[in-house]
């Protein structure tokens, strides 16, 4: 009739006024200092100059965190953009500034979103993990989207579409968290991150997104067959949401009206689907089926009204009124006009479903026009690849230059043993050879014995300074470990954080390597001192004036024949070749040190193209391209030396045979000693300079190591104070008793209790006290959530700190070994006995009926 059609149109418009969408609350956090830990990490890993380049962006990043998660957010798209930008920044910096217990140690504290707290505090968790911070930000983004969706203007198409999009985005974020939180953290931080809680939130958001499409279909007056399919699928979504939300692990998290709303909506949409399908039956002249569906719809909507209880959901009653009036008219038409058979409700064909929503995947990046704050920092994979390249480059240069120096040292030794070139410079045996005077002059220009003595005297001070820094680092670790052990003995199993012995294991291994380096340096110092003492007399003579050197040399007469003069001429030519060879080697050594290639850009290009770095392949290829030609020159120089020494030896034999008085004499021995002393001076000067540089560089490394230890000790001290405070609060709440196991009725299907005995027929003045073993009228409480998670057990990994050619300190292997986080506490409140003569159904929280009867306690 026209009147029923008008009322049906009113029904289409009524649902848009329903304000029963559920919104997820946001997690709360605390402000934390992120500037100092990041600054220390950049200084220790990169350099102080790199820190100066990034000081402003570090402060900007700290401000971004405050705006995104510390300060309150308005329900506006701008707030979503702020969260998205912070989330994108966390993702972008994962490869550059890894926040973890063994890298940048920043302890993020987040509270459970559904915990309302008490005078003793709220459920919270603190973890030094960038993943944990990112997950919490994503949770807040999903929660804020659910809140934004709930305030959209549902009377417009744009409002409905926006709300549906937000709900689907929120579902996608909760779904991502469900799949990634535990695998990444290896622990359950707070109950809102449990799989059951996140599963429930996903299903709720999907149901509400489908709900929006139902409203759109209703307002557009789409065909009843289509609206029925959408409504039935919406009912299925709410059924899943209700089942997941009523799970025993999560049931106590929600507000008291959540589950009644889900139950009511499940019934509402099932009734709406049957209602619209009845109109399809009417159009196809199936009047008996129309009556049956309206009867089924009436039963369903009444169930929804019953489930809603005291909740004010006007749409339930509106739909109930439409169904009732249509049912009266349908019965009347069928009984007096059509006389069609009314089938049983269980014989009705199920209404088909139409799914219009899904959990939308997370986009990357989320924010529009995102720009990484730390563009000047290279990814850690590239930084480590650069360290690998510099290490390989330094090793190759040291090896090739070492070959050249070793060959030169051998050649000098051969010439000194032959007393060349001194033997051919003063044939009279009375004057000081010119080469000796030149060597003496060079030694005096470099500072003579005084500079050697000064550098040797400085070695013990440099060594002791490094030992003091290293010992202080070990002392801090030892004191922290002792303090941790005392607290562990006091609180016993409640002291759940990672033991210091495990946490500092890798730092101790790194310190042991430094100690070994210092021990080796001590041995090197002793070798230098022994060499110095061996040549001290010759160095003392070379440090004197030319006249004093002449007086120090023994006088020996010598004559040389004409054939000997030919040998002298040949030897002088070969000495010129020796000098040319030495100069060529000096130039070749400089070429090794100055050869460069823009290897960083090649690493970045490979990373962008492949998504990963085949570091060793790139390193080997570039080392070969740059240094292959220089290595060939080294081999040729060594071969040329062999040929030259053979010629020198042959010419010297001729010279010795043609000279008179060539037997062993003190003058020749003195000249050989002076030549060896000169070579020793050059070597000692180089070694002592390298030794001083080594100790100074090692001091910088040890100070960085000490800073890492200090940061760890400070963080552990703060963690200890927070954990001690939490344990004291737990003790004040009286929850320090031994942890009970999960009750059997939470793990198995409840078993129907035995029938109670018949009541006593003897008259009694009043009912007796409630027996302890009767079923409770209240549901058992949820297992208590332990707010103190198992801490990760990894230590910071030392990177490659040294410059090209310096000592490489290899990274330690990464072996995560996280323990699972178990929740095994529960409390069951005793119930009251329900007399058999006054039976009542068992009731759940807030008065809605239990899905299953609890087992007997």
Structural features, described:
This protein has 857 residues and is mostly helical. The protein is 63% helix and 1% strand. The chain has 23 helices and two strands. It has a two-stranded antiparallel sheet with strand order 1-2. The radius of gyration is 43 Å and the shape is elongated. The two termini are 58 Å apart.
Keywords:
857 residues, Butyryl-CoA Dehydrogenase, subunit A, domain 3, 2 domains, 23 helices, 63% helix
Task: Please outline the helices and strands.
Layout: H1 2-14, H2 35-45, H3 48-70, H4 77-92, E1 108-111, E2 124-127, H5 130-150, H6 157-185, H7 195-219, H8 224-245, H9 258-283, H10 287-308, H11 314-338, H12 380-417, H13 434-445, H14 448-491, H15 500-503, H16 505-534, H17 536-542, H18 546-552, H19 562-594, H20 599-610, H21 615-658, H22 666-733, H23 744-747
Antiparallel strand pairs: 1-2
Helix pairs in contact: 1-11, 2-3, 2-22, 3-4, 4-5, 5-6, 6-7, 7-8, 8-9, 9-10, 10-11, 12-19, 12-20, 12-21, 12-22, 13-22, 14-16, 14-22, 16-22, 17-22, 19-21
> What is the end-to-end distance?
58 Å
Q: Looking at the structure, what is the overall shape?
A: elongated
Give the class-level CATH name of the largest domain. Answer: Mainly Alpha
Average pLDDT level: 80
Q: Helical amount among residues, as a percent range?
A: 55-70%
**Count of helical segments?**
23
Number of strands: 2
Q: What's the quaternary structure here?
A: single chain
| Largest beta-sheet details | 2 strands, antiparallel
What is the CATH-assigned architecture of the largest domain?
Answer: Alpha Horseshoe
The unreliable regions are 11-19, 735-756, 758-857
Q: Look at the helices and sheets and give the structural class.
A: mainly alpha
Structural domains: how many: 2
State the CATH topology of the largest domain. Serine Threonine Protein Phosphatase 5, Tetratricopeptide repeat
InterPro entries: ALIX_V_dom, BRO1_dom, BRO1_sf
GO cellular component, one term: endosome
Organism: Hydra vulgaris (Hydra)
Domain BRO1: 20-411
């Amino acid at each position: 009739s026209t009147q029923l059609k008008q009322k049906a149109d009113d029904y289409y418009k009524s649902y848009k006024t329903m304000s029963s969408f559920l919104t997820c609350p946001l997690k709360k956090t605390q402000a934390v200092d992120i500037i100092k830990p990041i600054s220390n990490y950049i200084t220790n890993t990169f350099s102080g100059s790199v820190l100066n380049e990034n000081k402003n962006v570090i402060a900007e990043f700290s401000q971004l965190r405050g705006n995104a998660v510390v300060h309150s957010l308005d329900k506006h798209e701008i707030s979503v953009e702020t969260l998205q930008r912070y989330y994108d920044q966390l993702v972008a910096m994962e490869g550059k500034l890894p926040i973890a217990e063994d890298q940048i140690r920043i302890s993020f504290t987040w509270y459970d979103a559904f915990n309302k707290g008490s005078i003793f505090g709220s459920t919270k968790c603190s973890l030094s993990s960038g993943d944990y911070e990112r997950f919490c930000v994503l949770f807040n983004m999903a929660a804020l989207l659910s809140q934004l969706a709930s305030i959209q203007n549902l009377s417009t198409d744009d409002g409905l579409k926006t709300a549906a999009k937000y709900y689907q985005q929120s579902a996608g974020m909760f779904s991502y968290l469900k799949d990634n939180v535990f695998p990444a953290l290896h622990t359950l931080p707070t109950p809102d991150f449990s799989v059951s809680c996140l599963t429930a939130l996903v299903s709720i958001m999907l149901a509400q997104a489908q709900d929006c499409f139902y409203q759109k279909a209703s307002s557009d007056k789409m065909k009843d067959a289509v609206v029925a399919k959408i409504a039935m699928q919406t009912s299925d979504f709410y059924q899943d949401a209700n089942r997941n939300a009523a799970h025993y692990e999560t049931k106590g998290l929600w507000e008291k009206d959540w589950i009644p709303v889900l139950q009511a909506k499940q019934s509402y949409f099932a009734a709406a689907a049957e209602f619209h399908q009845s109109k399809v039956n009417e159009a196809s002249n199936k009047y008996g089926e129309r009556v049956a569906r309206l009867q089924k719809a009436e039963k369903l909507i009444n169930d929804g009204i019953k489930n809603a209880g005291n909740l004010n959901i006007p749409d339930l009653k509106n739909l109930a009124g439409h169904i009732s009036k249509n049912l009266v008219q349908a019965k009347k038409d069928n009984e007096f006009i059509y006389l069609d058979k009314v089938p049983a409700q269980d014989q009705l064909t199920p209404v088909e479903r139409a799914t219009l929503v899904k959990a939308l995947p997370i986009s990357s990046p989320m924010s529009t026009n995102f720009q990484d704050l730390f563009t000047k920092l290279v990814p850690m994979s590239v930084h480590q690849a650069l360290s690998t390249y510099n290490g390989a480059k330094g090793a190759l240069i040291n090896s090739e230059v070492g070959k050249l120096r070793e060959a030169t040292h051998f050649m000098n030794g051969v010439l000194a043993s032959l007393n060349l070139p001194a033997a051919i410079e003063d044939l009279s045996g009375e004057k000081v050879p010119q080469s000796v005077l030149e060597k003496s002059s060079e030694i005096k220009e470099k500072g003579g014995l005084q500079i050697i003595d000064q550098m040797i005297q400085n070695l013990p001070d440099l060594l002791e300074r490094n030992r003091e820094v290293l010992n202080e680092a070990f002392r801090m670790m030892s004191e922290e470990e002792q303090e941790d052990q005392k607290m562990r003995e006091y609180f016993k199993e409640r002291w759940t954080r990672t033991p210091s012995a495990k946490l500092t294991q890798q730092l101790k291994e790194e310190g042991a390597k430094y100690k070994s380096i210092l021990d080796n340096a001590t041995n090197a110092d002793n070798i230098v001192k022994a060499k110095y003492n061996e040549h001290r007399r010759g160095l003392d003579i070379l440090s004197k004036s030319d006249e004093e050197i002449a007086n120090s040399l023994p006088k020996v007469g010598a004559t040389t024949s004409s054939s000997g003069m030919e040998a002298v001429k040949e030897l002088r030519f070969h000495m010129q070749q020796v000098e040319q060879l030495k100069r060529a080697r000096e130039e070749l050594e400089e070429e090794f040190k100055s050869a460069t290639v823009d290897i960083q850009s090649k690493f970045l290009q490979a990373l962008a193209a492949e998504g990963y770095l085949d570091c060793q392949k790139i390193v080997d290829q570039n080392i070969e391209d740059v240094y292959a030609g220089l290595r060939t020159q080294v081999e040729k120089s060594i071969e040329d030396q062999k040929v030259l020494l053979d010629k020198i030896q042959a010419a010297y034999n001729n010279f010795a045979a043609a000279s008179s008085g060539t037997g062993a004499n003190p003058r020749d021995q003195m000249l050989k000693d002076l030549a060896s002393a000169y070579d020793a001076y050059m070597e000692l000067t180089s070694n002592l300079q390298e030794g001083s540089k080594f100790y100074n560089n090692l001091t910088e490394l040890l100070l960085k190591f000490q800073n890492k230890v200090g940061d760890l000790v400070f963080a552990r001290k703060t963690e200890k104070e927070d954990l001690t405070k939490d344990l004291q609060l737990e003790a004040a709440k009286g929850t320090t008793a031994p942890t009970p196991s999960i009750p059997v009725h939470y793990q198995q299907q409840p078993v129907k209790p035995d029938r109670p005995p018949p009541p006593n027929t003897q008259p009694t003045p009043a009912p007796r006290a409630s027996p302890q073993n009767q079923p409770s009228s209240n549901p058992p409480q949820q297992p208590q959530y332990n707010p103190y998670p198992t801490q990760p057990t990894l230590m910071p990994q030392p990177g490659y700190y040294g410059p090209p050619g310096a000592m490489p300190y290899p990274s330690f292997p990464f072996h995560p070994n996280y323990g699972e986080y178990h929740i095994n506490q529960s409390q069951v409140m005793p119930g009251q006995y329900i007399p058999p003569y006054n039976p009542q159904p068992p009731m759940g929280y807030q008065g809605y009926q239990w899905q299953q009867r609890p087992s007997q306690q």
